[in-house]
């Protein structure tokens, strides 16, 4: 470890109070991740009605938001190199606030491309924010307990995901909006579009206040540098390809996000396929979320006291294979329950993959973090493979697609994260 890194970490660890304050701030940021991201599920039906869209057009909501992670990740690296982690997070929150601000003229005009522009800008700010905050929570404490801290962040994220539809849904009143889907009354549609303004004004205020809080906070500035002589073999490296474990880690995170989205986003449709009515099936994602939160709590208690983060990743990958096979070879509620339990299998993957990938990358910490954030694109691409198989065979057999993916994650946990360039 470089001398400056040891100095920084000693400063960070010198006061448990400072460490706790840092965790609280980062936890607030992860809450924002969840709140903003989970709003997309609500915006799709809302904008479909308010902007008179087809179903296909309405799904550009998710495209505009998630494509920002791929487009902006390289920009994220340069931004953080220029501003540093702390100021970079503050700027990212301001960028997100500007994206939310565009919702006001978009609502007044019911101009869909302007909504999409706002979503892209919010996703861009979020890409920078995640690029900084994920390694930040890894660095602000001992490396062996990084997965435990990220598990806490995961709970903040999922709690926000549960709160967002309830809070914003109160303003949008989608139950009443359903009646408007069968009308061409322009004044009624205009009135509906304006409902998004009050909650987004609130989001703007919260983002700006949080940005100011981060800027004024005592968060330490952490500079990742090259390693000293004990890592001399890596010291001269100038490309991510000189760190095979990091390349494999980015691929692993891409795969993980894909299987997580499959588990969460297909369960309602799969429940209906298994014979449940919609009213019952729409509650199944709650089971996935509860299973995931349970996994986070286990991680907080067990890592690293009882289990190392790489071993936790092994267990999760094995559970992923077992639960997927269980879903394929059972039926009815049992099969759906196995899909929900994939939330438990997925819970500790993100917390474990990040620190294992960032280990020993030295001055490339920000670059690798940027690539890891780009890996979120797996949630847009891998579920398409499930959809193709579901159309070609049936929705149950299509879950075979996740089995080799979990096996790759298992490979990374067992051997892939240990590979270093000679």
Automatic annotation (TrEMBL):
It is found in: Cell inner membrane. The chain crosses the membrane at residues 21-44, 56-76, 88-105, 111-129, 150-172, 192-215, 245-264, 284-303, 315-333, 339-359, 371-391, 397-414. InterPro entries: Glc/Gal_transptr_bac, MFS, MFS_trans_sf, MFS_TsgA-like. Its main location: membrane. Pfam families: MFS_1 (PF07690). Gene3D superfamilies: MFS general substrate transporter like domains (1.20.1250.20). Keywords: Cell membrane, Membrane, Transmembrane, Transmembrane helix. It is a multi-pass membrane protein. Coiled coil: none annotated. Signal peptide: none annotated. Belongs to the major facilitator superfamily. FHS transporter (TC 2.A.1.7) family. Intake of glucose and galactose. NCBIfam families: gluP (TIGR01272). This is Glucose/galactose MFS transporter. It comes from Autumnicola lenta. The gene is gluP.
């Amino acid at each position: 470890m470089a001398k400056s890194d040891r100095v920084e970490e000693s400063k960070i660890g010198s006061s448990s109070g400072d460490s706790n304050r840092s965790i609280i701030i980062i936890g607030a940021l992860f809450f924002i991740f969840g709140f903003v991201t989970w709003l997309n599920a609500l915006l799709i039906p809302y904008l479909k009605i308010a902007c008179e869209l087809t179903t296909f057009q309405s799904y550009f909501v998710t495209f505009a938001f998630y494509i920002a992670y791929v487009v902006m990740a390289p920009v994220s690296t340069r931004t953080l190199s220029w501003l540093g982690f702390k100021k970079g997070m503050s700027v990212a929150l301001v960028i997100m606030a500007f994206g939310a601000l565009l919702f006001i003229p978009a609502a007044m005009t019911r101009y869909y491309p302007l909504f999409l522009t706002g979503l892209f800008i919010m996703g861009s700010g979020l890409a920078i924010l995640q690029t900084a905050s994920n390694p930040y929570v890894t660095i602000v404490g001992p490396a062996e307990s990084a997965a435990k801290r990220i598990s806490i962040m995961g709970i903040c994220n999922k709690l926000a995901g549960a709160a967002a539809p309830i809070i914003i849904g109160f303003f949008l009143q989608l139950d009443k909006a359903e009646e408007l889907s069968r009308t061409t009354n322009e004044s009624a549609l205009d009135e509906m579009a304006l409902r998004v303004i009050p909650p987004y004004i609130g989001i703007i205020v919260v983002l700006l206040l949080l940005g100011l809080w981060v800027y004024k906070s005592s968060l330490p500035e952490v500079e990742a540098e090259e390693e000293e002589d004990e890592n001399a073999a890596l010291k001269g490296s100038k490309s991510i390809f000189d760190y095979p474990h990091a390349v494999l880690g980015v691929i692993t995170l891409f795969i993980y996000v894909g299987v997580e989205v499959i588990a969460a986003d297909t369960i309602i449709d799969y429940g209906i396929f298994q014979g449940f009515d919609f009213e019952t099936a729409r509650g199944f994602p709650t089971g996935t979320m509860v299973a995931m939160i349970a996994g986070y709590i286990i991680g907080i208690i067990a890592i690293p006291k009882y289990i190392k983060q790489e071993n936790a990743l092994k267990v999760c990958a094995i559970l992923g294979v077992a639960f997927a096979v269980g879903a394929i070879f059972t039926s009815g509620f049992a099969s759906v329950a196995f899909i929900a339990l994939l939330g438990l299998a997925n819970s500790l993957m993100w917390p474990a993959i990040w620190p294992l990938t960032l280990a020993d990358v030295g001055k490339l910490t920000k670059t690798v973090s940027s690539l890891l954030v780009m890996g979120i694109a797996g949630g847009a691409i891998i579920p398409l493979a499930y959809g193709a198989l579901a159309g070609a065979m049936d929705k149950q057999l299509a879950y075979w697609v996740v089995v080799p993916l979990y096996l790759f994650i298992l490979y990374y946990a067992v051997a892939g994260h240990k590979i270093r360039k000679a």
